[in-house]
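Good day; I would like, with your permission, to put a structural problem before you. What I wish to show you is a protein chain and, alongside it, a tokenised description of its three-dimensional fold. Please examine both parts with care and let me know of anything in them that strikes you as inconsistent. Thank you for your consideration; the sequence and its tokens are set out here:

***
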Amino acid sequence: MKHFHISKKVSGMSGILFPIIATIFIFISILLNRDWFSFSENALSDLGALSTPYNFVFNLGLIVSGIIAIIFALGLKKISNDDIFGKIGTTSFILGMIFLTSLGFLPTGLPLHTEAAISFFVLTVLGIIFIGVSEIRSEESRIYGVYIFSIIILLLSSIALIANVPHDIGVAIPEAIASVGIAEFTITYSLRMLDIA
């Protein structure tokens, strides 16, 4: 029986393409729905809601970018430390990317959308944190652990600041900030897979 194998190069390229493709689909969705969508009043997933015109663009973007992200995530196993923290981190990140893909099939308005969205965010962030802990514990890769925790601190600080703004804001702004952090992580680790970083 043959084993399914994805090369580091394919995973690395996937990690670079993932945020680019996701951003393109989100941008097109926002353009198509610019008459009502607002970062300060909506969640990004409102672009894929059952009642939204052109919802297929956003949902297709989640599916396509999610599959590409899974290919990247599978490659994490090739460059992550082989300790318990690295194993938990990569497994959690892979599961997070599976939940991201599932959101394209479970748009806002369907049962389990909220649960899938929360699972995506929690598993992805926990995966990044566990990978960071694993990196900090290793002398050779400690700098990557410090980098990961600087991303996490920046993300949490940004979200905490936004949460304390006296005006009512939508979920899209914290979602966008979290997306930037995830993109930083995937691009950095993709460059490692490609032996550039």
Remarks:
- The first helix runs from residue 8 to 32.
- DSSP finds six helices and no strands in the chain.
